[in-house]
Amino acid sequence: MASTLNVLATFTIIRSTFNDFIPKEIREYLWSFIRRFSSDFTLVIEETHDGSSNHLFKAAMAYLGSHVLSASSASGSPKRLTVGKNENVRKFTFGLDRHSEIVDFFHGVPMKWKYNSDVNTTNNNQFNSESRWYELSFQKKHAEMVKSKYLPHVVSMAKKLKNQNRMVKFHTVRRERWSSSPVNLDHPMTFSTLAMDGDLKKTIVEDLDSFINGKEYYKKIGKVWKRGYLLYGPPGTGKSSLIAAMANHLNFDIYNLNLSAVNSDSSLEFLLLHVSNRSILVIEDIDCTVKLQNREAGDEVGGFPHVQVTLSGLLNSIDGLLSCCGDERIIVFTTNYKDKIDAALLRAGRMDKHICLSYCTPSIFKQLAANYLGISNHDLFCRIEKIIEEIHVSPAEVAGELMKCKDPDKSLENLIQFLENKASEGTSDNTEGERGGNPKQEKGSKSKNSTKSDVTNNSITFLALGSGSKTAGEYTVKAELAPILRGVLLKHGDILANCLLNSMQCRSSFLEIVCGIIQKLQAAKLEDLTEVELQSMVASVCDLESVKLELDWLHKRLDEIIDALELVKHSSKLKEDKKRILQEIEQMEKELETNCHTEKPETQNKSLQVQEMKAETEKLSETISNTEAKVSHFQGSLVDGLL
Ligand SMILES: Nc1ncnc2c1ncn2[C@@H]1O[C@H](COP(=O)(O)OP(=O)(O)OP(=O)(O)O)[C@@H](O)[C@H]1O
């Protein structure tokens, strides 16, 4: 700190006329003379400090950025601000323009900030570099307070602001490592749009807030600053939505870990150790990916012989994550079947809070109606609430119905029709005790309902072409998917030959997912697909592989498409670079034309620079055409050779 303390006396107003008419040397002499009698004190905060980047400079930039706009309406405030936004932040960021000033009041004490910058040019005029610094001026008597209170306040506020403004990222696993290019989460779910019963939402938000504000408390009680949540409940009750709301509330990244994509305990450990601070690690459907019971019997992977991650490996990795490195981490497990999970995973310390997401209740329905239709009451509410109390219907199903029509009367009538159909199909099991706690409805039962109607309306029954030992069976898929399924079975044989699922209904539903993915790929062009969509297809394929569907051919194709998409992105970036350089060349050539008669060294340098830039664009063109050649086979169809 001592080295950044330059004691300079300052005057508050520097008149431009003074600068214009008095030579620099005399001005400096006068300033140093005046400074000796001033009670002001100035700290110079340069961009670099002791040879490396100065955190205080960055903090000042972020801190002042949040003040400048509100202060700009006050008198004497800066008339020019800088503004910008890059893809890693949510909102515009403002800043002081060079040579402008702002006064910040801290406990009533004025702190005057000035932003400066200067361009340094080397002797031969070849390299320009910009030095930037802030000057913080205050009365000498406040020096101790600035050092012990104000500067720490600036740093901590800057950290807070930076965290609030950063874009939340969604990380997925690729080839047993976190993907190097996480996507922006951009999920609209927040706690105000998430429908939940009674005080549950309030309790969760309070728990998250007390966790996030509890650094000192955790330190005091000697506990590592991490928290584990288990979210359980039937499909479609909002577990994933709650995770998105948590991430948006805390501005934490999500690390989505699909255990079936991890081949060994050591890979799992590696992944968990490389989760960053301020993040939520999500392990979804933990009961499906690893069979976690029968620990004593040493049957950790039980009926899932392909799963390489063991329960002890998972426990060790989680304990490692929870005990040693990093801070501000949340780990979330989701399951449809809480009772299938080994108690060791759920014990306090690993999972601090168990949150049950329930089937739709009258209160959840009302929140959904308010969100989707913008109404808080309606004559039909009574009837709907009555049916909802009688049957098991998920918030996702109700939301799906409400989304279909914007007119409240029509939408609610449609919902009644849907609920009555559901009731008459006998999907509700009124003998079940807890509405959401211990779902007896199988995860596939939602699709079972839809399959039922599909069978009568628009479906086709298929005889699997057995590839050998296993008896072929009848798969029922939607009519539109039948040609795809036929193609798959012909090309790849019975991909369910070793499938761990026995019921034809489940097998058919899973085949529909496979065909659905292929249908999407058939209809799409490479540039229409997003990485999120592709990652979600890969996640589905991984899930299906975890129950032994033979899908390595589809998995490989999706990986190839993801790689190709990355190349396309890379190539369009290169094209932009090339365009920019060409524009610069054009500009420089114009300047050279104007100065063609001078033989100054700058003119010669510039023409050399133009030649170098031209060579660079040629290289870029070559890289672009190589990249395009690599993805050219995907320009036609994405499913070529797949069926
Ligand atoms: N409680 C809820 N509040 C608001 N919307 C909800 C809620 N539950 C579900 N939805 C809607 O239903 C969709 C699916 O829900 P979501 O994926 O969160 O359920 P889930 O419990 O994670 O399901 P699964 O167990 O099948 O993964 C969401 O995108 C959202 O639109």
TrEMBL record:
Residues 432-445 have a biased composition (Basic and acidic residues). Residues 423-453 are annotated as: Disordered. GO terms for biological process: response to stress. SUPFAM superfamilies: P-loop containing nucleoside triphosphate hydrolases. It catalyses: ATP + H2O = ADP + phosphate + H(+). The keyword Nucleotide-binding applies. It holds the Pfam family PEARLI-4. CDD domains: RecA-like_BCS1. Keywords: ATP-binding, Coiled coil, Hydrolase, Magnesium, Nucleotide-binding. The keyword Acetylation does not apply. One of its GO terms (molecular function) is ATP hydrolysis activity. InterPro entries: AAA+_ATPase (IPR003593), AAA_N_dom (IPR025753), At3g28540-like_C (IPR058017), ATPase_AAA_core (IPR003959), ATPase_AAA_CS (IPR003960), Mitochondrial_chaperone_BCS1 (IPR050747), P-loop_NTPase (IPR027417), PLipase-like (IPR007942). Its cofactor is Mg(2+). Residues 225-361 form the AAA+ ATPase domain. Residues 571-630 form a coiled coil. Belongs to the AAA ATPase family. BCS1 subfamily. This is AAA+ ATPase domain-containing protein. It comes from Corchorus capsularis (Jute). The lineage of its organism: Eukaryota, Viridiplantae, Streptophyta, Embryophyta, Tracheophyta.
